[in-house]
Amino acid sequence: MNALAARRRHPAAILFLLLLGLLITGSAYAAFAPKAATAAEATADQITLGKQLFASNCASCHGKNALGTEQGPNLAGVGAASVDFQVGTGRMPMAEPGVQAPRGKDVTFDDEKISALAAYIASLAPGPAIPDAKYTSGEGGDPGKGGMIFRTNCSMCHNSAGAGGALTRGKYAPSLMGVDGKYIYEAMETGPQSMPVFNDNNISPESKNDVIAYLKAMNETGNPGGMALGSLGPVPEGLFAWVFGLGILVGAAYWLGQKGA
C-alpha cells in the first residue's frame, strides 16, 4: 500500500502546494490590506516643470539630483506627500538653517508648482503619495475615536488639545489648531522632523480622518470653560494661581495690617 502511494505522489507536488499557498496568501493580503490613499498619477509635463523648479530653488541644499548634501537630506523616497507638506506649509524652502523648520507665514509656490515639485520627487523613488481628499476633510469621521487615537499616539508631544509643546534641543511640537486636514494627514504619513511615521499600516486612512475630525471639533468648540491659558495644562494654570492668587492674598494681608494700625 505504501509503495502504491509513493508511486502516485509526483515529485513536484510539494513545490506546487507551496506556490499555491503563496498565491492564496498574496491574494488575501491584496484584498484585505489597508488601501493607501493615493492621488492621481503625475504627468510628464508636471515632472519636467518640477525638475526645473527644483534645480532653481532646492538643489543648492538637497543636491543637483536631490540625493542630499551637508545642508539638506536625500529626498529620494520621501514621496509626494512629504514635498506637499513641507512646501505647502511654507516650511520649505527654508529661510535659514536651524534645528527645525518653522511653519511659514507665506508659501513660496502656488498649488500648481507645488504639485509639480511633488511629482518630480515622487518620480525619483517610491514614497507616500498625496492623500485622497475624502480622507483629509474630517467629514464622516468619528471625533470620539479620533480623540482616543490622538491621545494614545500624539498627545505626549502636541498635548491633548493639540496646542503643541516643547521638545528637546530647541525643537518643538507645533500647534495643530487651524491646520488644514491634508497637512495633518501628510504629517502622520511622512513623519516630518521629530515626528514618528504613522503609515496606513499603523493608522488606516479612515482612522486618520477620525483624528482630523477630532482636531476640527476641538478647534470649533473653543474654550467654553473660560481662559485657555495656551491649553498647556497645569503649568500655566499653576503660574496663574501663584502670581494672581498669592498677589491678592499679600495685598489683602497688607490692607488688613494697615487698617489695624
Automatic annotation (TrEMBL):
Residues 1-30 form the signal peptide. Coiled coil: none annotated. The chain crosses the membrane at residues 239-257. Gene3D superfamilies: Cytochrome c-like domain. Its EC number is 7.1.1.8. The keyword Iron applies. It is found in: Cell membrane. It is a multi-pass membrane protein. The keyword Cell cycle does not apply. It catalyses: a quinol + 2 Fe(III)-[cytochrome c](out) = a quinone + 2 Fe(II)-[cytochrome c](out) + 2 H(+)(out). Residues 45-125, 141-219 form the Cytochrome c domain. Keywords: Cell membrane, Electron transport, Heme, Iron, Membrane, Metal-binding, Repeat, Respiratory chain, Signal, Translocase, Transmembrane, Transmembrane helix, Transport. It is an enzyme of class 7 (translocase). PANTHER family: CBB3-TYPE CYTOCHROME C OXIDASE SUBUNIT FIXP, CYTOCHROME BC1 COMPLEX CYTOCHROME C SUBUNIT. The cytochrome bc1 complex is composed of a cytochrome b (QcrB), the Rieske iron-sulfur protein (QcrA) and a diheme cytochrome c (QcrC) subunit. This is Cytochrome bc1 complex cytochrome c subunit. The lineage of its organism: Bacteria, Bacillati, Actinomycetota, Actinomycetes, Micrococcales.
